[in-house]
Amino acid sequence: MPKISLLTPTANDTVNLALDTIRIGKQALIFVGTRPSAEKTAEDISKKLGTEDAELEKLSLEILHALSRPTKQCERLALCVKKGIAFHHSGLTHAQRTAVENGFRNGKIRIICCTPTLCLSGDTKIWHESLETPLSNFNGKAAIFSLCGTSLVKIKPEAIERLENSSELIGIETVSGHSIKATPNHRFFVKRKVKKLIAAAGIQKGDRIATVGKIHIEPKQASLKDFVKDNELPIKNQIIEGKISYFIGAMLGDGHSGAEMLSDKIRYKGSPCLVGIDGEIFSAAQEVCNILQIRYAKKTNYHGTPQLVLSKKKWVREFFLRCGIDKLENKHLSEKLETLDLNSSASLLRGLFDTDGYVQKSRNIGFSNISERLVKQMQKQLLRFGIVSRIRKASTMKIYQKVYNTKESFELTIAHKRSILDFYKCIGFGIERKQTDLLDIALQISSNINYIECGKCKYKLYSNIFSGRSKSQKRWGAFKLKVISILGERGELGSKELKNILGFGLRKKDSRLNHHYQLIQKRRTGSRSKTEWYWKLNDIGMWVYNNIIKLSKNIEYVQSMKVCPLCNSALLFSIKKGWRDSDIEGDIFWDIIRSLKKLDAETFVYDVVLPNFPKSDHMFVANGFILHNSAGLDIPAYRAVIRDLRRFGKTGLNWIPVLEYLQMSGRAGRPKYDSEGQAITIASSEPEKDEIHERYILGEPEEIYSKLAVEPVLRTYLLSLIATRFTKNHKEIMEFFSKTFWAHQFREMPKLEATIMRMLALLAQWEFITGEDFIGANELADETKIHATPAGRRVAELYLDPYTANHIITCLRRGRDFSDTFPLLLMICTTLEMRPLIRAGARDYDAVQEKLAEQDGKLLQEEPGMYEEEYEEFANAVKTSMFLNDWIQEKDEEYLLERYKVRPGEIHAKLDLADWLLYSSIELAKLMQLKHALPALAKLRLRVQNGAKEELLPLLRLKGIGRVRARRLFTHGITDIGAVKRAEQARLAEVIGAKVAEDIKKQVGQEQTQGILKFGEEKVE
Against a cut of 0.70, is the pTM above it? Predict the structure, then answer.
């Protein structure tokens, strides 16, 4: 523990509470209303301390150099950390936040001054055993999956925290079909070049993100009596395994239980039946029916398809129904079936894949069903075997070689090579024709052998030992064959003699290309030469020469052997890795981000508090993702000091909600660390103390209100419903909204309907919706069909507020000359999506007016009058545009912090918003045929992404070249790709470093190898 000397207490109650906390050997969280307050309070406390600690010095340096050039914020935080004090808010970089949290957790940092943190949506489902429970309903008593290294272990969380939220959420969806909603600062485990935690706002489309690759569910035995509860079981109780679980799987795929569940009661309707064309399934079903004494009869349905009709006994129908064989889209796996042992689970899955599964020649295994719940449960069951799959929606279904238009169905596909092989080994098909197709795929994958290996004789024979992909590799392969042939013919030769015969060097620098060494043994002798090596074929080399080379056989002949020709031991085979093989790492699957969307704010968000022991990486599984627990780190906060209970809003200084107070108070006193916790608020007078006691100690939490009452949310949601064809006319729209929580709260449907009609009129005016005989929203008949226009569909896909989309389209139509980027920046900064904007204070008035005067006649929108209500927000937009303009003029983080009071963490959040809005502008410009605006928008987006002037754009195309390195190259006269090609590598190394210089030379098709510069396949001395 650091040695801390306390100075004299002050008149500041918050500082005194912090000093007292340190004096008694405890830690505290101090909650304040704003980020500047957090920083100042931390500084005020640190000034009253004297500290000597080498670890704090090290931590301070780590925080100071989190950016390439430290900002004043970095310096302030580093000075505080030296004293064991820190501030924490979203304006810090990820590295700084992590360092502060870890320092607090290990007891080095004693006080953190912070603003409240945010987390996950309440409907996020946390995974525990086979169950998935929404965070808003999870009681925290069950052990959940948590990451430890690359393995998922089970840990019981300490708490589930609920926090009030006002920020918008980010929706993340992966290629495999996993999706989740999180606040922008919630961190995810991402692998780019290295694995690291990245805030949701910093994640990009195409990133690899940690998802579940394998789970370990505790197996539990199930029997007939677990499913037959309402009726008497007339036969001996049976364990659900093997043949019975296969039968259940087949019934889930192509069967009907003869009953359905209505309000937790069973409605018995008809005879259970199994439909299909495969005799193998019917034979397996008949065998189980005989075991369970279920009568059956073979018939043909009205489509002419064979079916097996089963007994109508109630216990039979109840059994199938409680297994999950419900009506169509309600089919699912009961909880008991989800925890069967692996062999029984494999049989169940085999029954499902035998009925609704298929094999494609394009190396895919698939399964289609209209029950989304069943398909998602299957995806999870496959993860028990380490089999990764993806889910997508489809409007057609392939059944017995025919494609049918169906209800919306869900297709599960297995395409990963390793997963296909695991499916073949662990599950497979029971139908011969499907198993044959699966075997063909497995053989294709397995035949792609990298090398065979004998563990006893210690050699590896590579498939490309005498070949290659490129011309140079093929030439080197032929050379290696010549080496082996000569040694086979002549016996042992010295390296000099062998080199003279061949006319080439005997080895390449890259050891991966020297696979022929597996056939050679070498010795060095000093009798003839101190440096001479003697080469000859070893035992396996002689066998290859005599049985392959001399007989003119292909080396691939060796790969057909099962045993070593020298020792008769079984050979091991290494399959060539696919492009995504590295994405499976222990229990992690590094899935690819398919889409990112900005979503509406939710009143409450949630976080999971994980303990330090047993050991975990503070990551848990929810919605298939492996997530970091954002706010609720296991930190021993004895005290929670809530300094600011009032906060500035549009109407001035207001009390914070009771719910937010309760959340912050809940941080005081952690299990295993303290027997009690102290939540302290500060009152300046007796009346204020009474007010706090009445409002927060005795007060009730606030009601929750629907966000649909906010017009931007309603506009966006209404257009989305129409664009996705979820509602097709006025009547369906009103029916939908009449069932919402908004309608329940609002109660007055006529007023609600008038609001919706007004929104429809706006959408029609903006040409985002149209309809048959569409006159106006107020004149719509109930059955008038409403369609989204192509522009409306794209706006819905971009998840833009239609008001914003219309604003962008209007601005772009007005523009003629886009040579000046500022009007485009102002265009996106005057959207609702960019809020909160950077506030323009009284000191900024002159700068804003000067900028507007400079842009006179160039702006793409009307400037409001100085005395109009909208002017203040417009001035804020101008200042925000000036901030973005300075960024693309290559101003650094320190300048932006000083000039605009925008911290590094906030900078990148604003840049992400700007990037999204510019991308949306490009998409809308394409759609509306505004081709004249596209080049300027595309260039501006690249400049915002990189923070660079236009002259650097050619260099920024190179991977590993950011604006700093690009500016260095430009300053030294290397201004584009052509100049990079012409420049000597040594000169590039002087400017940007040897490693980066080598890398960019490779990117432009040039590579330096042993003094020879290669251009593609040509070599130039």
Answer: no
CB 909 within 8 A of CB 784: no
Q: How far apart are CA 23 and CA 15, in angstroms?
A: 12
Q: How confident is the model at residue 578 (pLDDT cuts 50, 70, 90)?
A: low
Length of the chain: 1021
Q: Give yes or no for a contact between 879 and 837, defined as CB atoms under 8 angstroms apart.
A: yes
The continuous run of DSSP H or E covering 527 comes out as none
Q: At how many degrees (to 10) do helices 711-723 and 730-738 cross?
A: 130
CA 411 to chain centre: 21
CA 140, CA 163: separation in Å to the nearest integer?
A: 16
Any bridge partners for residue 261, and if so which?
266
Sign of the CA dihedral running 729, 735, 739, 743: positive
Does the pLDDT value for residue 636 go beyond 90? no
444 vs 584, residue with greater confidence: 584
Residues facing residue 29 across a β-bridge: 112, 640
- CA 1016/CA 7 separation, integer angstroms: 69
Please give the Cα distance from 94 to 75 (Å, whole number): 16
Round the CA-based radius of gyration of the chain to a whole number and report it: 34
Task: Name the average pLDDT for the chain.
Answer: 83
How far is residue 541 from each of residues 83, 412, 513, 523, measured CA to CA in Å?
Answer: 68, 47, 17, 16
Q: Which residue has the tokens 């927000």?
A: 873
**DSSP one-letter string for 569-613:** PBPEEEEPP-TTGGGEETTEEEEEEEEEEEE---SEEEEEE--SS
What is the rounded CA–CA span in Å between residue 15 and residue 48? 8
**490 DSSP β-pair partners:** none
For 915-969, write each residue's pLDDT tens digit. Answer: 989 999 999 999 999 999 999 999 999 999 999 999 999 999 898 898 889 999 9
Any alpha helices (H) in 947-1009, and if so which ranges?
Answer: 953-956, 963-971, 977-982, 985-992, 994-1003
DSSP three-state, residue 70: coil
Both tokens of 350, joined, read 């085999």
Question: Residue 289: enclosing H or E segment and its boundaries?
Answer: helix 279-292
Q: Cβ distance 131 to 143 under 8 Å? A: no
